Amino acid sequence: MLDPLPPPPPWLVNWVKHYSEALYLPSLPYHIHEVLGAFVLYQTTQSIISPLLSNLLFPHIYPKLNRRTRINWDVHVVSLLQSLLINTAALWVMFNDKERKDMNSSAVERIYGYTGASGLIQAMATGYFLWDLIVSARYLKIFGPGILAHAVTALAVFSLGFRPFCNYYGPVFILYELSTPFLNIHWFCDKLNMTGGKLQWYNGMLLLSVFFGCRLVWGTYQSLRVYQDVWHTMHLNTQPGPVLREIRESPHSSIYIPRDGQLCLGDASCISAQSEVMKFTGSQTLAVPFWLALVYLTCNLVLNTLNWYWFGKMIETVRKRFEGKPHDERPRERQRKQSMVELAASELDYDTLSGPKTPYNEKEDEFAKAPAPSNDNEFAKGTEFATSTAVPDGNHEVKKR
């Protein structure tokens, strides 16, 4: 499938071509406008769109956030936007790109093949991870080294796609982002004082399920496929020379069937789409160099390791949202979290039993009703409602924690 977006202006292609040749990224000039467009979109969203909309939609919450939380808020807005856009585009390409589907029969095409539609996904992802790298490095104290490592490795993996290299797997690994919308919703529930509610509970279950399915199961399986394809192409030729020599000599190669356009029936766009599959390969194409395989597979391994680590942290975070704190008298017993109605009734009973308020009691009540400070680490250690008001039991005897 051809790139559905218009091509970049000639002056931009000529300006980038010199640098892309030096870096051996020959398909980059044809998608540079999409890389820059994605970067500008996400930076504009963080700096302008998110603050304006957040102030408009949440006037009693967003303006009162401290600087650290406000930065985190804007970054989560960008992350939510990006995940919705890139997931939709990747699924559309995977279902509609016929040339990409035909690559299933050839490891060489999956490694060296190219389609304009898959190049679009590479470009959108590269633009986002370029923005992500800058933000993660600038606010390292907020997001931590794990997020920075994720940005570096993801940017390296998708940038190498412009060789083109593993262009076929671009939409595949983008589906890691299917879990990201649920992650952002979980974070916003904390900031909107919805911690422990039904929305966060159902969303948390979806988050864990989708994260496990798309990142751990799907991602690990596709990583093994990449390892197999790279190994195959690295050892395709035992003698020095072009990697495609043996493939081109085979009359049954999928490069020529149906890549010769015989099945297009005169459709110009079909012929163009088929002709660009091996557009960036030729007699000079060599086997995958060792350094390229090492960099790509190492980055892939780092991303998968981070996914397994984060899955454990996410389980721990979701559990904390719905578990009470231990009793002082019985450390092993978990206390059920009270609803707001129960808390209000408890305070009313306490006021009735304790008689008129003194200045000391008023200060104590103000302190008891104050919310606990929020923690803005990754996966949103949000505000947890804490109270020290007395809770009467069924016999109306007062107990204080």
Automatic annotation (TrEMBL):
Transmembrane annotation, as ranges: 35-54, 75-95, 111-130, 142-162, 168-189, 201-221, 288-311
Keyword terms: Membrane, Transmembrane, Transmembrane helix
InterPro entries, per database record: TLC-dom, TLCD
Signal peptide: none
Domain TLC: residue ranges: 68-323
Topology class, membrane: Multi-pass membrane protein
Pfam families in the record: TRAM_LAG1_CLN8
Cellular localisation: Membrane
GO biological process, one term: lipid homeostasis
UniProt keyword annotation of Nucleotidyltransferase present: no
Record-given protein name: TLC domain-containing protein
Phylogenetic placement of the source organism: Eukaryota, Fungi, Dikarya, Ascomycota, Pezizomycotina
